[in-house]
From TrEMBL:
The entry's keywords: Amino-acid biosynthesis, Cytoplasm, NADP, Oxidoreductase, Proline biosynthesis
InterPro entries on file: 6-PGluconate_DH-like_C_sf, NAD(P)-bd_dom_sf, P5C_Rdtase_cat_N, P5CR_dimer, Pyrroline-COOH_reductase
Gene name of the encoded protein: proC
Pfam families: F420_oxidored (PF03807), P5CR_dimer (PF14748)
Annotated family: Belongs to the pyrroline-5-carboxylate reductase family.
Name listed for the protein in its UniProt record: Pyrroline-5-carboxylate reductase
Reactions performed catalytically: L-proline + NAD(+) = (S)-1-pyrroline-5-carboxylate + NADH + 2 H(+); L-proline + NADP(+) = (S)-1-pyrroline-5-carboxylate + NADPH + 2 H(+)
Domain Pyrroline-5-carboxylate reductase catalytic N-terminal, chain residue ranges per copy: 5-99
Species of origin: Mesorhizobium marinum
Length: 270
Protein backbone atom coordinates (compact mmCIF):
# COMPACT_ATOMS: atom_id res chain seq x y z
CA UNK A 1 0.00 0.00 0.00
CA UNK A 2 1.25 3.51 -0.74
CA UNK A 3 2.45 5.65 2.14
CA UNK A 4 -0.20 8.21 3.10
CA UNK A 5 1.32 9.55 6.30
CA UNK A 6 4.98 10.26 7.07
CA UNK A 7 5.70 10.59 10.79
CA UNK A 8 8.93 12.47 11.45
CA UNK A 9 10.15 11.65 14.97
CA UNK A 10 8.76 8.66 16.85
CA UNK A 11 9.62 9.52 20.46
CA UNK A 12 7.08 9.87 23.26
CA UNK A 13 4.49 11.88 21.36
CA UNK A 14 5.02 10.50 17.86
CA UNK A 15 4.70 6.92 19.10
CA UNK A 16 1.62 7.72 21.19
CA UNK A 17 -0.15 9.08 18.10
CA UNK A 18 1.05 6.32 15.78
CA UNK A 19 -0.17 3.66 18.21
CA UNK A 20 -3.60 5.34 18.29
CA UNK A 21 -3.91 5.58 14.50
CA UNK A 22 -2.94 1.97 13.87
CA UNK A 23 -5.03 0.56 16.69
CA UNK A 24 -8.11 2.22 15.18
CA UNK A 25 -7.51 0.53 11.81
CA UNK A 26 -8.13 3.82 9.95
CA UNK A 27 -4.61 3.57 8.59
CA UNK A 28 -2.94 0.32 7.59
CA UNK A 29 0.58 0.04 9.06
CA UNK A 30 2.02 -0.03 5.52
CA UNK A 31 0.41 3.36 4.84
CA UNK A 32 2.64 4.92 7.50
CA UNK A 33 6.32 5.74 7.10
CA UNK A 34 8.22 6.55 10.29
CA UNK A 35 11.47 8.53 10.08
CA UNK A 36 13.39 8.07 13.34
CA UNK A 37 17.20 8.17 13.74
CA UNK A 38 17.16 6.31 17.06
CA UNK A 39 17.32 2.59 16.25
CA UNK A 40 15.53 1.38 19.37
CA UNK A 41 12.61 3.73 18.72
CA UNK A 42 12.63 2.89 15.02
CA UNK A 43 12.39 -0.83 15.84
CA UNK A 44 9.52 -0.12 18.23
CA UNK A 45 7.61 1.58 15.38
CA UNK A 46 8.57 -1.29 13.07
CA UNK A 47 6.96 -3.73 15.49
CA UNK A 48 3.64 -1.94 14.90
CA UNK A 49 4.11 -2.73 11.20
CA UNK A 50 5.05 0.77 10.01
CA UNK A 51 7.58 1.22 7.25
CA UNK A 52 10.64 2.69 8.99
CA UNK A 53 13.78 4.59 7.95
CA UNK A 54 16.49 6.50 9.76
CA UNK A 55 16.22 9.49 7.42
CA UNK A 56 13.95 10.59 4.61
CA UNK A 57 16.82 10.09 2.15
CA UNK A 58 17.00 6.41 3.17
CA UNK A 59 13.28 5.85 2.59
CA UNK A 60 12.79 3.71 -0.48
CA UNK A 61 10.46 4.43 -3.37
CA UNK A 62 8.70 7.42 -4.84
CA UNK A 63 6.77 8.97 -2.01
CA UNK A 64 3.74 11.17 -2.34
CA UNK A 65 2.34 11.39 1.18
CA UNK A 66 -0.90 13.23 1.92
CA UNK A 67 0.26 14.18 5.41
CA UNK A 68 3.68 14.84 6.96
CA UNK A 69 3.54 14.90 10.77
CA UNK A 70 6.48 16.66 12.42
CA UNK A 71 7.02 15.33 15.97
CA UNK A 72 10.59 16.30 16.79
CA UNK A 73 11.76 18.64 19.55
CA UNK A 74 11.15 22.37 18.95
CA UNK A 75 14.92 22.98 19.13
CA UNK A 76 15.57 21.01 15.90
CA UNK A 77 12.30 21.59 14.11
CA UNK A 78 13.52 24.14 11.58
CA UNK A 79 16.46 22.12 10.28
CA UNK A 80 14.43 18.88 10.26
CA UNK A 81 11.43 20.42 8.47
CA UNK A 82 13.69 21.83 5.74
CA UNK A 83 14.42 18.24 4.68
CA UNK A 84 10.75 17.76 3.75
CA UNK A 85 10.38 20.82 1.52
CA UNK A 86 9.92 18.61 -1.53
CA UNK A 87 6.51 17.50 -0.22
CA UNK A 88 5.25 21.04 0.42
CA UNK A 89 3.48 21.31 -2.94
CA UNK A 90 1.18 18.34 -2.33
CA UNK A 91 1.18 17.29 1.34
CA UNK A 92 -0.34 18.92 4.39
CA UNK A 93 2.15 19.41 7.22
CA UNK A 94 1.00 18.79 10.78
CA UNK A 95 3.30 19.94 13.58
CA UNK A 96 2.84 18.87 17.18
CA UNK A 97 5.75 20.94 18.47
CA UNK A 98 5.24 23.24 21.43
CA UNK A 99 5.78 26.90 20.68
CA UNK A 100 6.72 26.79 17.01
CA UNK A 101 4.13 28.77 15.08
CA UNK A 102 2.65 28.17 11.63
CA UNK A 103 4.67 31.13 10.30
CA UNK A 104 7.94 29.30 11.07
CA UNK A 105 6.78 26.47 8.81
CA UNK A 106 5.67 28.65 5.91
CA UNK A 107 9.02 30.43 6.17
CA UNK A 108 10.77 27.10 5.63
CA UNK A 109 8.29 25.39 3.29
CA UNK A 110 7.05 28.38 1.30
CA UNK A 111 4.12 30.76 1.73
CA UNK A 112 1.73 28.39 -0.07
CA UNK A 113 2.39 25.44 2.26
CA UNK A 114 -0.61 23.85 3.96
CA UNK A 115 0.19 23.75 7.67
CA UNK A 116 -1.77 22.56 10.67
CA UNK A 117 -0.59 22.86 14.26
CA UNK A 118 -1.84 20.26 16.66
CA UNK A 119 -1.26 20.12 20.39
CA UNK A 120 -1.81 16.52 21.49
CA UNK A 121 -1.02 14.81 24.79
CA UNK A 122 0.33 11.37 25.65
CA UNK A 123 -2.99 9.73 26.67
CA UNK A 124 -3.45 9.67 22.87
CA UNK A 125 -1.62 6.31 23.07
CA UNK A 126 -4.73 4.72 24.61
CA UNK A 127 -7.34 6.74 22.70
CA UNK A 128 -7.90 9.19 25.56
CA UNK A 129 -5.87 12.13 24.31
CA UNK A 130 -6.87 15.78 23.92
CA UNK A 131 -5.88 17.19 20.55
CA UNK A 132 -6.29 20.89 19.73
CA UNK A 133 -5.87 21.95 16.11
CA UNK A 134 -5.39 25.21 14.21
CA UNK A 135 -4.86 25.40 10.43
CA UNK A 136 -3.65 28.02 7.99
CA UNK A 137 -5.77 29.10 5.01
CA UNK A 138 -3.84 26.82 2.62
CA UNK A 139 -5.19 23.63 4.21
CA UNK A 140 -7.87 22.14 1.98
CA UNK A 141 -11.07 20.64 3.40
CA UNK A 142 -10.32 16.99 2.49
CA UNK A 143 -6.92 17.15 4.24
CA UNK A 144 -8.49 18.86 7.25
CA UNK A 145 -11.12 16.12 7.43
CA UNK A 146 -8.53 13.34 7.05
CA UNK A 147 -6.31 14.77 9.80
CA UNK A 148 -9.35 15.36 12.04
CA UNK A 149 -10.46 11.78 11.46
CA UNK A 150 -7.01 10.41 12.28
CA UNK A 151 -6.65 12.53 15.39
CA UNK A 152 -10.09 11.52 16.62
CA UNK A 153 -8.82 7.94 16.87
CA UNK A 154 -6.52 9.20 19.63
CA UNK A 155 -9.14 10.98 21.70
CA UNK A 156 -11.08 14.23 21.64
CA UNK A 157 -10.35 16.88 19.00
CA UNK A 158 -11.03 20.59 19.41
CA UNK A 159 -10.44 23.22 16.72
CA UNK A 160 -9.42 26.80 17.37
CA UNK A 161 -9.16 29.72 14.92
CA UNK A 162 -6.84 31.94 16.94
CA UNK A 163 -3.32 30.49 16.90
CA UNK A 164 -2.20 32.73 19.77
CA UNK A 165 -4.26 30.51 22.12
CA UNK A 166 -1.90 27.60 21.43
CA UNK A 167 0.50 28.61 24.21
CA UNK A 168 -2.31 28.37 26.76
CA UNK A 169 -3.54 25.11 25.23
CA UNK A 170 -0.03 23.66 25.51
CA UNK A 171 0.18 24.69 29.16
CA UNK A 172 -3.16 23.07 30.01
CA UNK A 173 -3.74 19.91 27.96
CA UNK A 174 -0.31 19.38 26.34
CA UNK A 175 1.67 19.42 29.57
CA UNK A 176 -1.32 18.68 31.81
CA UNK A 177 -0.95 14.87 32.02
CA UNK A 178 2.40 15.44 33.79
CA UNK A 179 0.65 17.50 36.47
CA UNK A 180 -1.82 14.71 37.11
CA UNK A 181 0.92 12.05 37.14
CA UNK A 182 2.74 14.12 39.72
CA UNK A 183 -0.44 14.35 41.78
CA UNK A 184 -0.65 10.54 41.70
CA UNK A 185 2.97 10.38 42.90
CA UNK A 186 2.21 12.81 45.73
CA UNK A 187 -0.96 10.97 46.78
CA UNK A 188 0.94 7.67 46.74
CA UNK A 189 3.72 9.10 48.94
CA UNK A 190 1.15 10.62 51.29
CA UNK A 191 -0.63 7.25 51.51
CA UNK A 192 2.64 5.55 52.47
CA UNK A 193 3.29 8.28 55.05
CA UNK A 194 -0.20 7.57 56.42
CA UNK A 195 0.79 3.93 56.98
CA UNK A 196 -0.31 2.03 53.86
CA UNK A 197 1.96 -0.52 52.14
CA UNK A 198 3.53 0.89 48.93
CA UNK A 199 1.60 -1.27 46.43
CA UNK A 200 -1.74 -0.57 48.14
CA UNK A 201 -0.85 3.15 48.27
CA UNK A 202 -0.23 3.22 44.53
CA UNK A 203 -3.39 1.32 43.68
CA UNK A 204 -5.55 3.59 45.83
CA UNK A 205 -3.97 6.78 44.44
CA UNK A 206 -4.27 5.70 40.81
CA UNK A 207 -7.79 4.26 40.99
CA UNK A 208 -9.00 7.35 42.87
CA UNK A 209 -7.70 9.74 40.19
CA UNK A 210 -9.02 7.47 37.43
CA UNK A 211 -12.42 7.07 39.06
CA UNK A 212 -12.79 10.77 39.87
CA UNK A 213 -11.78 11.89 36.34
CA UNK A 214 -14.12 9.31 34.79
CA UNK A 215 -17.03 10.36 37.03
CA UNK A 216 -16.45 14.03 36.20
CA UNK A 217 -16.28 13.27 32.45
CA UNK A 218 -19.16 10.78 32.29
CA UNK A 219 -21.64 12.51 34.61
CA UNK A 220 -21.11 15.91 32.95
CA UNK A 221 -21.68 17.34 36.45
CA UNK A 222 -19.85 20.45 37.62
CA UNK A 223 -16.70 19.25 39.45
CA UNK A 224 -17.57 21.60 42.32
CA UNK A 225 -20.88 19.72 42.80
CA UNK A 226 -19.08 16.37 42.73
CA UNK A 227 -16.59 17.70 45.29
CA UNK A 228 -19.42 18.74 47.62
CA UNK A 229 -20.95 15.25 47.32
CA UNK A 230 -17.77 13.83 48.89
CA UNK A 231 -17.52 16.46 51.60
CA UNK A 232 -19.54 15.73 54.75
CA UNK A 233 -19.91 18.71 57.08
CA UNK A 234 -17.11 18.63 59.60
CA UNK A 235 -15.88 15.33 58.14
CA UNK A 236 -12.57 14.00 56.86
CA UNK A 237 -12.73 15.56 53.37
CA UNK A 238 -13.47 19.00 54.82
CA UNK A 239 -10.33 18.67 56.94
CA UNK A 240 -8.22 17.87 53.87
CA UNK A 241 -9.81 20.54 51.68
CA UNK A 242 -9.11 23.16 54.30
CA UNK A 243 -5.41 22.40 53.70
CA UNK A 244 -5.69 22.38 49.88
CA UNK A 245 -8.21 25.20 49.43
CA UNK A 246 -7.37 27.46 52.40
CA UNK A 247 -5.93 30.72 51.04
CA UNK A 248 -6.44 29.22 47.56
CA UNK A 249 -3.20 27.24 48.08
CA UNK A 250 -3.64 24.61 45.36
CA UNK A 251 -5.36 27.05 43.00
CA UNK A 252 -2.46 29.50 43.31
CA UNK A 253 0.09 26.74 42.69
CA UNK A 254 -1.76 25.36 39.65
CA UNK A 255 -2.23 28.86 38.20
CA UNK A 256 1.47 29.58 38.65
CA UNK A 257 2.43 26.26 37.06
CA UNK A 258 0.21 26.82 34.01
CA UNK A 259 1.57 30.37 33.71
CA UNK A 260 5.15 29.05 33.73
CA UNK A 261 4.35 26.48 31.03
CA UNK A 262 2.64 29.13 28.90
CA UNK A 263 5.62 31.49 29.24
CA UNK A 264 7.99 28.68 28.19
CA UNK A 265 5.81 27.92 25.18
CA UNK A 266 6.02 31.58 24.13
CA UNK A 267 9.80 31.46 24.60
CA UNK A 268 10.15 28.28 22.50
CA UNK A 269 8.37 30.07 19.68
CA UNK A 270 10.95 32.87 19.48
N1 LIG B 1 5.70 14.51 25.13
C1 LIG B 1 4.54 15.13 25.19
O1 LIG B 1 3.72 14.90 26.10
C2 LIG B 1 4.18 16.15 24.15
C3 LIG B 1 5.09 16.57 23.20
N2 LIG B 1 4.73 17.50 22.27
C4 LIG B 1 5.69 17.92 21.25
O2 LIG B 1 6.06 16.79 20.52
C5 LIG B 1 7.38 16.95 20.04
C6 LIG B 1 8.18 15.72 20.37
O3 LIG B 1 8.26 15.60 21.80
P1 LIG B 1 8.58 14.20 22.48
O4 LIG B 1 7.94 13.12 21.70
O5 LIG B 1 8.27 14.35 23.90
O6 LIG B 1 10.17 14.16 22.27
P2 LIG B 1 11.07 12.88 22.05
O7 LIG B 1 12.47 13.31 22.26
O8 LIG B 1 10.54 11.73 22.83
O9 LIG B 1 10.85 12.55 20.49
C7 LIG B 1 11.45 13.27 19.46
C8 LIG B 1 12.03 12.26 18.50
O10 LIG B 1 12.52 12.91 17.35
C9 LIG B 1 13.60 12.14 16.87
N3 LIG B 1 14.40 12.91 15.92
C10 LIG B 1 15.44 13.74 16.16
N4 LIG B 1 15.93 14.20 14.99
C11 LIG B 1 15.18 13.66 14.00
C12 LIG B 1 15.19 13.75 12.58
N5 LIG B 1 16.09 14.50 11.93
N6 LIG B 1 14.25 13.06 11.88
C13 LIG B 1 13.34 12.31 12.52
N7 LIG B 1 13.29 12.18 13.88
C14 LIG B 1 14.19 12.85 14.59
C15 LIG B 1 14.35 11.75 18.13
O11 LIG B 1 15.21 10.63 17.91
C16 LIG B 1 13.21 11.46 19.08
O12 LIG B 1 12.87 10.09 19.12
C17 LIG B 1 7.96 18.20 20.67
O13 LIG B 1 8.01 19.21 19.69
C18 LIG B 1 6.98 18.52 21.78
O14 LIG B 1 6.87 19.92 21.96
C19 LIG B 1 3.46 17.99 22.19
C20 LIG B 1 2.52 17.61 23.10
C21 LIG B 1 2.79 16.68 24.17
O1 LIG C 1 7.17 19.64 27.72
C1 LIG C 1 7.03 20.00 26.55
O2 LIG C 1 7.64 20.96 26.08
C2 LIG C 1 6.07 19.24 25.67
C3 LIG C 1 4.97 20.12 25.12
C4 LIG C 1 3.73 19.73 25.86
C5 LIG C 1 4.11 18.54 26.59
N1 LIG C 1 5.36 18.24 26.43
Amino acid sequence: MAVRVVLVGCGNMGYAMLAGWLKSGKLAPSETLVIEPNQELRDRAGRLGSVVASSIDDAAGDLSPEIVVIAVKPQVIREVTAGYRKFAGSATFVSVAAGTGIAAFTEILGAGAAVMRCMPNTPAAIGKGMMVVVSNANVKEPAKAFVGDLLSTSGKVATIDDESLMDAVTAVSGSGPAYIFHFIECLTDAAVAAGLPADTARLLAMQTVYGAASLAAESGEDPAVLRRQVTSPNGTTAAALEVLMGQDRLKTLVTEAVGAAKARSVELGK
